[in-house]
Every structure is written in C-alpha cells, then in structure tokens.
Amino acid sequence: MQDSPLAHIRFTARSTGTIPEDQTCFQFWRELDMPEHIGTHSLMVARIATSLATWAKQRGWDVRIQEVRAAALLHDLGKAYTIVHQGSHSQIGASLVMQRLGNPAIAQGVIHHVHWPGELNLERHFLPLTVLYADKRVVHDRIVSVRERFEDIVSRYAHSFERMQKIYRSHARVLALEKLLTQSLEVDVHAYPFDRRGMVQREGGLPQGS
Q1: Domain contains 86
Q2: How do beta strands 138-139 and 142-143 pair?
C-alpha cells in the first residue's frame, strides 16, 4: 500500500541548519528584490507569530521564538519571483529557504502558510500552524480579523465555485485553529490587538537598503 501524499504531515519537520536573525532575513529580501509592500506585510505577520511563540515559550513549550519569527519574515520570500514568472510562491519560497538555510522547520512554515493539510496539533506542528494563523490575520499592512482576511481572499482569488468552496473550507480550519490557540495559550487571540503595547518589539522599522 502506498503512503498517503500527506503522510509527511504526521511528523514535525526537523529544526536543523540555520536559524537566521532578522537582519539576515532582510538581506534575503534585498537579494531577491522583495517589493516593499510585501516586506511590510511580512513584518506584521512576524509581529503576530512572535507574540504567539513568546506566549507558548512562557508556558514551557519547546518553541524556538526566533525560528518561528524567521519563518514568518520569510513566508513570502517567493513572491517577487512569482510576480514575474508565476508559479506557487509558497513552494518557491520553501525551496529558497532550504537552499539558503537548510532548515526544514522554517521551510515547512513557508510552504504551508497558505494551507495546512494536516492535523491541528499545536504540540507537534506549532511553527507552521502559527505562521499560517499569523498570515490569516494580516491584509496588506493591517492586522484584521480572520473573517476580514478571508473576505479579502475571496474578493481576489475566488474565481470559480470550486475555488470558493476551497477557500471557505480553509476559513473554517483557521477559525478552528484560532479557537485552539486561544484555549492552549489562554489568550483571546481573536481580540488581542498585537500592537506595540502588547509585546516586546524586535522589528525596529523596515530594513534599510544595503
């Protein structure tokens, strides 16, 4: 019997290779000509992901905060390429991450930030689920509700009935993930503002040119 194509999702991706600091991530952006608005979006996603990772760490979970943050900063690394050449920005971004960092955990966070096909198990899959959730709370450079984020996704990508059904199924899973995060971290993540008063900021503004 052949393995399911999703069999690998049963396993936590190994944290090996490099865990880059913010400045290294920003250098990757510059080298790959990431548009400024994508960088701004990525900073907002990283803000949310870093908060979630910090709360998990405070509860004693085995979480590498900078690894989660780096995956969030790099989740759209493939965007600049696909704007010109098309293709899947999540797959291309994950490939770029593996080439540059050799870290399967960060690559998993990148490739699955659009859709997570596995179980909603925070203990086993904290990093990719956190990056997925954080991305579904940001429209461009604004932190919004999951509902508002999916309204934006529908308006831009629901070009067929089949596509719309897929988006609505994804919406339901992200809402389930939001509930799981709230219960597990004991923070109402839906209501939390994720502003500068609510966490220790590490961004220091947008990165400057090299």
Answers
A1: yes
A2: antiparallel
Residue 190 CB neighbour total at 10 angstroms: 14
Neighbours of 123 (CB within 10 A): 10
Q: Please give the pLDDT value at position 159.
A: 75
SS3 8: helix
194: nearest Cα among 48, 71, 68, 41 = 48
Helix (H, G, I), strand (E, B) or coil at 139: strand
pLDDT digits (tens, 9 = 90+) for 135-148: 999 999 999 999 99
64 in helix, strand or coil? coil
How confident is the model at residue 196, as a pLDDT? 56
In the chain, the number of structural domains is: 1
| Ranges of the chain with pLDDT below 50 | 1-9, 197-210
Q: Which two tokens stand for residue 91?
A: 């797959």
> Which structural domain range is residue 118 located in?
19-185
Q: Considering the domain boundaries, does residue 1 fall inside one?
A: no
Single pTM value for the model: 0.86
Establish if 61 belongs to a structural domain: yes
Q: How far apart are alpha carbons 146 and 157 in whole angstroms?
A: 16
- Would you give the end-to-end CA distance of the chain in angstroms? 53
Where do the H-state alpha helices sit in the chain?
22-31, 36-58, 65-73, 79-85, 89-101, 104-111, 122-135, 146-157, 161-185
